[in-house]
């Protein structure tokens, strides 16, 4: 008997999980349905519910309208850089906040939390002016630099570190003469893998799907990210939803693939490790 | 890593004091420098890219400005207008109602989901990817799908209700139905997300805790409340705080659900019953272009959020000490 | 590991990071700059949105004006981007397309070039007068030239009309349903013939907008004074309310599946819409092909939608920009845009061009252009003020409460007036 609980318990667990699964997947399935049928089929009453064969036809319309590959490359570059930077800076800061005492630690952390709530939407104009002063309009820097370390990420890593990183290990490292970066690298990072997997996935997805800010700071179609480029497909009076969905699907699939193979490294490994504890 | 006694886990924070005492041979400056350098990047980025815009938006809150023409100083007018605007009052009330209707069940269901999934011994990864799909699915797709789900006369939900001989629900005009619809979409989009947070948190709990409890004859229910919840407390605090902030600044969901035709869209739907504080702020700033007023509104929202986040923090952290 | 080497590593990492960032920024700037160095040509930037200008026409600008290098950028979330850019005084384009909300830019009219200084008076007589005048600010400056228009018409199901004993031929329908009252009486006949299953109109918010859209003055007079507490607004309100009270409205909201379904399954017998509603109609109700017809709008012709081209004052090449915009919207190019993108023309020569005519199968081989072209020429001069959209919202909101929650119409009207007063205060 390695599995927990009784047989009925496991069956109930399974059913509940499958229900969650179904609810989560349906809208995504619907996206595939729309991307693989024609717009007329979507408007059809009752609507078509099955995957069609129009994906390539729809997607080739997308290719006629936007430089998909280039926009894809831009997005991949920007999202990857942001994710790497966020993972590094947030984990270092979060670990430090959680596991070390230094003068002003608590007040700095409260300030950091406060910055999470501070309204930023109405300062769009001011942010734009700053970027213009830096001559960064039209480059990727306005997308990367302000987002390279976030209060959210630090908060998350701090909370996770509290119970995931054992203080004994830090003490032991200290006795061996390890400096701060060494402790971070060899004690904190391995223990933080599941948290980093989550943070990395969230950061990458948010960067990938970011729309309003890239729209404001990018002007040249060559520098557009996917979301900005895809938004151009919307008409004013009427929208070819099949085309939009085909574009959106092609923009989303890489996310899922990256999430599947990227985050798996983090999450799956630690699950295996946890059993050996 | 295997040598650490599990009992010390929850108390790890108090133990850090010993680090401070152990560094006597180094000067204070050299001891603390790496620590400060570690947290410095965030504060630098914040100072350069957020503080200036924030000060600007505070200045803007006292001006009348449409974004293009000249600014006019209007004193506290924007604030008095905001505090006396019935529409803003509706928005505040709606936000809190929807927040309670969505966040409480959402966090509970996410925790249950994570706990159940964590019991599974075989691969959980496919589940994790799928639970995350609502967060990845494009907003346009989400809009279209919920449009066809919640259609009043030909929507899927009402078709099912009618088939069961139940009365159809006026999703877009019944005041409570509008809020439930909103809460349902919020839950749909964020349960998986919070579930993943909890799953990550659960993985920091060594399985021998569970084994030991099983041997002592504890059932699933006991394990959940006696071991899982206390050990997850920091992560739970994180989700409570971030979903409070997220729930009280709810924006995308009401925007996509209650967005009608161009030029005909009522912000927040019929009677503005789906209008949230953030949507109100956005509408004032970027639909009617009252930038100064929008800035004032965002500061009012900020103060509401500060109060609530602090309350939350106190409530959840009380058990921690 | 000794602390010294560690802190060194830390700063090394920091330096390495800064170097990478700098290098990256240089690369990005270079990439952004390479596009802007055409030799000796005048460089112009134009912002527009998808399907607002024909891309094939834009592509010919280089041929037409060898000295001009035009970069046309498709922008989405248009007004947000335009306002932010203009507020930041950075990267404002030389040519800016503006949608039907042009009047919201009137308070900042000095941010746009007065096109009269570039000779726009010579163009005036070649466009529909009412459309041209929409680009004239209250102080008399001309800040925009016309692009497309949205003349309205009555879209109706001839088979349902026949069942109800109503005329089915477009000309006869136009002559029978002259006023909104005539139209409502037709609704009663439809109700009787179908046991109340089929409604006359889709929703009252649309009808309200259409009745008001036929009037020269709507929410404000030309001095900017609010006149929406009576007159034309009250009249449009009453018409909409009456439609609702007599059970003539299906209350399906535009751009929803409910609307698509109602249009497709024949529970809505007609609706009033602009010429660009053809496409949504084709998509929603392909199965009803051949049953639809188009007649003139009851109560008079109106307009809904349509856009403009402007030249922001920030440009240093106003003259060249003007050459480009007047060429882009000349009669030939408007004809191309109509054929490619169904953008309905505003140039008189294009409107009179027989090439617009076509017998459309969807409308039972009716030449609908005959209706729309006549309507376009017959629309009276009307004036929209800067607060038009904001104020209009309050009335649409109030109508929504009446139709969806059975709110007392008088109370709704009074609440709308209070909301408007507050909106105008800000």
Binned, the helix content of chain C reads: 40-55%
Strand percentage of chain C: 5-15%
Label the CATH architecture of the largest domain in chain C. 3-Layer(aba) Sandwich
Q: Radius of gyration of chain C in whole Å, from Cα?
A: 26 Å
Number of strands of chain A: 0
Give average pLDDT of chain A, whole number. Answer: 84
Q: What is the terminal separation of chain C in angstroms?
A: 65 Å
Rough outline of chain A: globular
Region (Disordered) (chain B): 1-22
Transmembrane segments (chain B): 39-62, 74-93, 99-117, 129-150, 231-251, 291-313
Protein name (chain B): Cytochrome c biogenesis protein
Keywords (chain B): Cell membrane, Membrane, Transmembrane, Transmembrane helix, Transport
Map the helices and strands.
The complex is a heterotrimer of chains A (277), B (321) and C (426).
Chain A: H1 7-35, H2 39-43, H3 55-65, H4 68-99, H5 105-117, H6 124-133, H7 141-144, H8 151-164, H9 167-175, H10 180-191, H11 193-209, H12 212-217, H13 226-231, H14 241-275
Helix pairs in contact in A: 1-14, 3-14, 4-8, 4-11, 11-14
Chain B: H1 12-15, H2 17-22, H3 28-60, E1 63-64, E2 72-73, H4 77-84, H5 86-119, H6 125-136, H7 139-150, H8 156-163, H9 175-202, H10 207-215, H11 220-248, H12 252-257, H13 277-286, H14 291-317
Antiparallel strand pairs in B: 1-2
Helix pairs in contact in B: 4-14, 5-9, 5-11, 6-9, 9-11, 11-14, 13-14
Chain C: H1 3-33, E1 42-48, H2 55-58, H3 61-64, E2 68-74, H4 78-88, E3 95-98, H5 121-124, H6 129-133, E4 145-146, E5 152-157, H7 158-163, H8 170-176, H9 180-193, H10 204-213, H11 231-245, H12 257-264, E6 270-274, H13 278-284, E7 292-295, E8 308-310, H14 318-328, H15 331-341, H16 348-351, H17 368-378, H18 388-405, H19 409-425
Parallel strand pairs in C: 1-2, 1-3
Antiparallel strand pairs in C: 3-8, 4-8, 5-6, 5-7
Helix pairs in contact in C: 10-11, 11-18, 12-13, 18-19
Summary of the model, kept short:
Chain A: The chain crosses the membrane at residues 12-32, 76-95, 107-130, 136-157, 183-205, 241-261. The complex is a heterotrimer of chains A (277), B (321) and C (426). Chain B has 321 residues and is mostly helical.
